[in-house]
Amino acid sequence: MKVLSLIGQKGGSGKTSVSLAIAVEAERRGRRVALIDLDAQTTAANWSDRRGKDRPAVVSSQVARLPQVLEAAKAEGVDLAIIDTPGKNDAASIAAARAADLVLIPIQPQLYDIETLAGLKDLLGLAGNPRAVVVINRAPVQGRRHLDAKDGIAKVYGLEVAPVVIFARAAHSDAGNDGLTAAELDPESKAAHEATDLYKYIVRLIGDDHGKANRSRRKA
After folding, report:
1. Adjacent-strand bridge partners of 84
2. How confident is the model at residue 11 (pLDDT cuts 50, 70, 90)?
3. Residues 153-197: pLDDT tens digits?
4. Is a pLDDT exceeding 50 seen at residue 59?
5. In a 10 Å sphere around its CB, with 0-12 CB exposed, 13-18 middle and 19+ buried, how is residue 188 labelled?
6. Burial of 113 per CB tally in 10 Å (0-12, 13-18, 19+)
7. Ordered DSSP codes for 15-83
């Protein structure tokens, strides 16, 4: 089982919407997914309630229960566990980062968000320095702010930045009202393609145990 954690030091960066987009894309491609919601606001869990479906499975959990929840997910045959964390909660972020094969840090391309990366680097150090990638999220469709943010993050903070940018498109927010993601609301939209591209990028980084297992079963 692979573990993907999304962390941040500021609310409103879009961690939950990115988590849900990845979870649905992974399910669509045959992975069994568990999304673990550590946020007391239970945004992901509320989305799942509106969705009215069992998959992807969304589990609302306290930070102290994270190891047990991950063990249960692994025992149930989950391929990908995604941990969604609250903003401004170091305990949750450290626990999630420690458990992760890969950490994603969604941020908006604005100074207030970018400045939080200094503290996040320290937090990652406390978690054992897992591999971490910044994802530019909610970028303005017009202009080059996302490009400037990428350059600044790499130069000032030395952090890896994902080549995939998630832009501020209405489909990303509108879909959540009905327990959907942009890819489900409009599969041919630019927003849907962004989610697909981000998922493919993540798989390249963490590997595809699910695909290997399927190939092994076919050979057997």
Report:
1. 6, 37
2. confident
3. 988 999 999 999 999 999 988 999 999 999 999 999 999 999 999
4. yes
5. exposed
6. buried
7. HHHHHHHHHHHHHHTT--EEEEE--TT-HHHHHHHHHT-SSSEEEE--GGGHHHHHHHHHHTT-SEEEE
Q: Which conformational region is residue 10 in: left (phi greater than 0), alpha (psi within -120 to 50 degrees), or beta? A: beta
Helix (H, G, I), strand (E, B) or coil at 197: helix
User: Considering the domain 2-219, what is its CATH architecture?
Assistant: 3-Layer(aba) Sandwich (3.40)
By C-alpha distance, which of 89, 41, 33 is closest to 209? 33
CA distances to 111, 133, 140, 145 from 97, in Å: 24, 12, 28, 28
Q: Which of 101, 93, 79 is nearest to 35 (CA)?
A: 79
CA distances for 216 relative to 30, 79, 123, 219, angstroms: 15, 15, 38, 5
Q: Are 103 and 133 in contact (CB under 8 A)?
A: yes
Question: Is the distance from CB of 166 to CB of 136 less than 8 angstroms?
Answer: yes
In the DSSP assignment, the letter for residue 126 is H
Report field, pTM of the whole predicted structure over 0.85: yes
Taking the alpha carbons of 60, 175, 209, 5 in that order, is the dihedral positive or negative? Answer: negative
**Distance (Å, rounded) from C-alpha 196 to C-alpha 6?**
17
